[in-house]
Design brief:
globular; 12% strand; mainly alpha; minor pseudopilin epsh fold; 3-stranded antiparallel sheet
Length: 199
């Protein structure tokens, strides 16, 4: 089966006023979909034609096929990003992820500072991540289509800092977008599920 564009896990207007339906219609319907289409074009008739997005991403990385990696990794990253947000999200975490953040960062505030700094200091396009690496939570950033998957790390959350993720709503104010992500959108239930699955 070719890769398909997954539905958003909420209505296009569900993240308003922080991220508008206009942004999601372009970001999901145009950008994400374009990666899906191109990934299918590049794998058609190959041994990866029926592989999962994760398998294609890993295989392209291993082979050094940057063109295919860029498309497949962006399909995977975006799907993970949609689920990293929730209409009822934001604020301090609860449950196991809250305890783990306190354990590994010292406090939620320290995590938030590191996470926003990762997004702010990613020059150009890329991603800020909360990952589990060797049993410990860490904040990382990746450029362009980069993903912690290929480094054997477990993604817990991600924030897209490509300009198309926020420009229609925040223009050049990336810090305001990152603040809104943590205060109003971040999906701690998804983070808890990813942490549980990795344990």
């Amino acid at each position: 089966m070719p890769i398909s564009l997954p539905d958003l896990p909420y209505a296009q207007n569900a993240l308003e006023p922080h991220i508008t339906a206009n942004t999601l219609s372009f970001h999901h319907g145009k950008h994400h979909n374009a990666y899906v289409v191109k990934c299918n074009e590049l794998t058609a008739g190959t041994d990866l034609e029926n592989a999962s997005v994760e398998e294609i991403t890993m295989a392209a990385h291993k082979k050094g096929d940057q063109g295919l990696f860029n498309q497949a990794a962006q399909v995977w990253n975006h799907t993970f990003y949609w689920n990293s947000m929730s209409p009822n999200g934001g604020g301090k975490p609860t449950g196991a992820i809250a305890a783990k953040i306190d354990e590994d960062f010292g406090s939620y505030e320290e995590f938030a500072t590191q996470f926003k700094n990762a997004g702010a200091t990613q020059f150009g396009s890329g991603w800020a991540w909360l990952v589990l690496d060797g049993g410990k939570l860490k904040v990382e950033k990746t450029p362009n289509a980069g993903t912690p998957l290929v480094d054997g790390k477990t993604p817990i959350l991600t924030m897209d800092v490509w300009e198309h993720a926020y420009y229609l709503d925040f223009q050049n104010r990336r810090p305001d977008y990152m603040g809104a992500f943590l205060e109003h959108l971040v999906n701690w239930d998804f983070a808890n599920a990813n942490l549980a699955a990795a344990s």
